[in-house]
Specification:
Blueprint: E1 6-11, H1 14-24, E2 28-36, E3 39-45, E4 53-58, H2 62-65, E5 76-81, H3 85-94, E6 98-99, E7 104-106, E8 109-115, E9 121-127
Parallel strand pairs: 1-4, 5-9
Antiparallel strand pairs: 2-3, 3-4, 6-8, 7-8, 8-9
Amino acid sequence: MAHLGLVTVVVRDYDEAIAFYVRVLGFELLEDTPVGDGKRWVVVRPPGARETGVLLARAAGGEQAARVGDQTGGRVGWFLNTADLDGDHARMRAAGVAFEEAPRQEPYGRVAVFRDLYGNRWDLIQLSPER
């Protein structure tokens, strides 16, 4: 059976991205391997995740650099599932994560939109038990 292995987030700088995703969001650093010409293969994932990780890819050139922070045209592009929205929301806020709103109830569960260090929009989401 197939599964989604990695999704890419285009970043300005590897080390600042690693610091945010690992120290602030609490992700695990799975790999940080030099691949030549100053490029690195950097993979992070939320703790406990087994199938999908995030490839932190440094922007190469002006066109990619222009996309840093707005990869989805202002839409939420990533969905970080949690079993404890209130606890993770409080921990992330204390670490300096910029939330656009307080947690709100939706038919599918509770959600709060936050921005990563570049401005990309994410949902922190606790799905309803029936989901």
